[in-house]
Specification:
It is a multi-pass membrane protein. Keywords: ATP-binding, Membrane, Nucleotide-binding, Transmembrane, Transmembrane helix. It comes from Romboutsia sedimentorum. This protein is α/β, with parallel strands linked by helices. It folds into 3 domains: 309 residues, ABC transporter type 1, transmembrane domain (ABC transporter transmembrane region fold, Up-down Bundle); 141 residues, P-loop containing nucleotide triphosphate hydrolases (Rossmann fold, 3-Layer(aba) Sandwich); 71 residues, P-loop containing nucleotide triphosphate hydrolases (Rossmann fold, 3-Layer(aba) Sandwich). It contains 19 helices and 12 strands. The strands form 3 sheets. The chain has a 6-stranded mixed beta sheet with strand order 6-9-10-3-11-12. Strands 2-1-4-5 form a 4-stranded antiparallel beta sheet, with no helix packed on it. Helix 17 links the parallel strand 9 and strand 10. Helix 6 runs antiparallel to helix 9 and helix 14 packs across helix 16. The longest helix has 49 residues. The two termini are 66 Å apart. The structure holds adenosine-5'-triphosphate (ATP). The site of adenosine-5'-triphosphate has 12 residues, from helix 11.
Length: 574
């Protein structure tokens, strides 16, 4: 937590101001009972109305000052806490944006969302209270103790007895509550995960009639969180009655012994009234401190979770001398590349080597799970190779600046992703300064013109969140258009034509020929018709290259390719 709080340094001035205000607030709070006792002992006892009025005005003045500084301190502490939360959220977001897919896998999307929202809110809340109470509570406890001793040292022995009882009870309650609060965060994570899966998979859940099963799963996660939250809060609510009991018994003792001392003439009535107020102040200060101690461990659990993200070793970080320039354009080379998703786990790709030059199309075909998508993901460096090298323009992608590398690539993922916003905005993702003409041209090449023109607002039509208001094939064509508009040196189509009908697939490939003639095209496909014209076809089987060549060559040399082809084409077509 302390490590995170270092980020507060930019608010140093405001924090000093808050502490100064809180200092004045505590002085005014401790001073008020003293004035009260003066009114009774000097004003009421001597029937001195002037003294009562003057001191009364003084009390009003001190109260007004106290009120103003309290409100101002609250205002500034909220400002600092919210600003700090905003900075931290941005920092976490920036870090996550640069995560490799492996790091996403490691923490999980649901947990990343909880950490960026709920966990940071915990820290914000505790910070706001800390800024106000960290100084105020000890100041009031010490100030009120000194004043109480000054009023009557012997009666202060009651405080000496009550305080340890209170402190031990608080400590016992916290010992039980803190682990419960820590586990609450884990349960929030779990609830988010289940909710997210349910929202994304709602159609599948309905069609498989699993609504009830999923409701139960959600209920389970929800009840778990509820149980822990109830237990934690039940434990904490014990604090209040317990403290009130100790405070009230102490007040009773003070009134009892104070009464005896007044009768003896060793104490004045006003002092007794002030003493009771000081006692209450001390006890409430302790209560505030204990509340802070409840919140700090919960926030520190959140801080640990946030630090986990901030400290994460970014495996795909750019080297300091990463290149931002190359002599060649659009060359892709795999040199004995092997890859496994996790250390020591089975290889998903083994010993892959090939070269693809501008003007050439390299198609990758193979059964499901044979490693096709994994292979193309190594080119924009979503992952690093386990063995061997991936070279772009003759340079190992590890030595290239990531932005520079990705600027060269137009990547169309297997699962088309569109963002909420207009079609125009979505396509401009490929090129910031794209004109409407650029967009229209890209739409035409991607065979999307037909359906875009039929939409009421054409390119200005709004795509809803997750692209749910366009069909799978339309989404694919728009994401192809987004890559085309970029005019990249390297096109990567990861099974990007799978949702298109044969006719559109054919027309799209035809129109792409012209557009991509100076670029390198790497194309993953399941359909033979999509790969027959490729310069070279790589046949993958369980991560290994079992054939490489043109359609004709492979028909003669590669049995697996022959099998794939014969399952899709008639003898005449072959
Ligand atoms: N993020 C990941 N973490 C761990 N393993 C993965 C991950 N992604 C894929 N794999 C595994 O890697 C292997 C190859 O997957 P890949 O997606 O590259 O296959 P593919 O040939 O593209 O399949 P498909 O044609 O079905 O899309 C599979 O066995 C898969 O289980």
């Amino acid at each position: 937590m302390l490590k995170l709080l270092k980020g507060l340094s930019r608010y140093k001035g405001t924090i000093i101001l808050i502490f100064a205000l809180v200092f004045i607030q505590s002085l005014s709070d401790v001073y008020l009972p003293n004035l009260m006792s003066d009114i009774v002992d000097k004003g009421v006892v001597n029937s001195d109305t002037n003294y009562i009025i003057n001191t009364g005005f003084k009390m009003i003045l001190v109260t007004i000052i106290g009120g103003i500084v309290t409100v101002t301190a609250s205002y500034f502490s909220s400002k600092v806490a919210m600003g700090f939360g905003r900075d931290l959220r941005n920092k976490v977001f920036e870090k996550v944006e640069n995560f490799s897919l492996a790091e996403f896998n490691q923490i999980g999307t649901a947990s990343l969302i909880t950490r960026t929202t709920n966990d940071i809110t915990q820290i914000q809340q505790v910070l706001m209270i800390m800024l106000r109470m960290m100084l105020y509570a000890p100041m009031v406890a010490i100030g009120a103790s000194i004043m109480a001793i000054k009023k009557d040292a012997k009666l202060s022995l009651i405080i000496l007895v009550a305080m340890p009882i209170l402190i031990v009870s608080i400590a016992l309650i916290l010992k039980r509550a803190v682990p419960l609060f820590k586990s609450m965060q884990k349960n929030v994570d779990n609830l988010n995960r289940v909710l997210r899966e349910n929202l994304i998979g709602v159609r599948v859940i309905r069609v498989f009639n699993k609504v009830e099963v999923e409701s139960k799963r959600f209920e389970g996660a929800s009840f778990n969180l509820c149980d822990v939250a109830i237990k934690a809060n039940q434990t904490i609510t014990l604090l209040m009655p317990l403290m009130m009991l100790v405070i009230n018994i102490s007040i009773l003792a003070v009134v009892w012994f104070g009464g005896v001392r007044i009768e003896n003439g060793s104490m004045q009535v006003g002092d007794l009234i002030a003493f009771i107020q000081y006692l209450a102040q001390i006890m409430f200060a302790l209560m505030m401190l204990s509340m802070m101690f409840v919140m700090i461990p919960r926030a520190s659990a959140s801080a640990t979770r946030i630090n986990e993200i901030l400290d994460m070793n970014q495996t795909l970080k750019d080297k300091e001398d990463a290149l931002k320039e190359t002599n060649m354009k659009g060359y892709v080379e795999f040199k004995n590349v092997s890859f496994s998703y996790e250390k020591d786990s089975e290889k998903v790709l083994s010993d892959i080597s090939f070269i693809s030059k501008p003007g050439e199309t390299t198609a990758i075909i193979g059964g499901t799970g044979s490693g096709k998508s994994t292979l193309v993901k190594l080119i924009p460096r979503f992952f690093d190779t386990t063995e061997g090298e991936v070279l772009v323009d003759g340079v190992n992608v590890k030595d290239l600046n990531a932005n520079y590398l990705r600027e060269k690539i137009g990547y169309v993922p297997q699962k088309a992703i569109l963002f909420s916003g207009s079609i125009f905005e979505n396509l401009k993702y490929g090129k910031d300064d794209a004109s409407i003409e650029d967009v229209e041209k890209a739409i035409e090449i991607a065979q999307a013109k037909g359906f875009v023109d039929n939409m009421e607002n054409k390119e200005e039509t709004i795509i809803s969140q997750g692209g749910t208001n366009v069909s799978g094939g339309q989404k694919q064509r728009l994401s192809i258009a987004r890559a085309i508009i970029k005019k990249p040196e390297i096109y990567i189509f990861d099974d990007s034509f799978s949702a298109l009908d044969f006719k559109t697939d054919k027309e799209l490939r035809k129109s792409l020929v012209d557009e991509t003639k100076e670029a390198t095209v790497i194309l993953v496909a399941q359909r033979v018709s999509s790969v027959v014209d490729a310069t070279r076809i790589i046949v993958l089987d369980e991560g290994r290259v079992v054939g490489i060549g043109t359609h004709k060559e492979l028909l003669d040399t590669c049995d697996i390719y022959k099998e794939i082809v014969s399952s899709q084409l008639s003898k005449e077509e072959m």
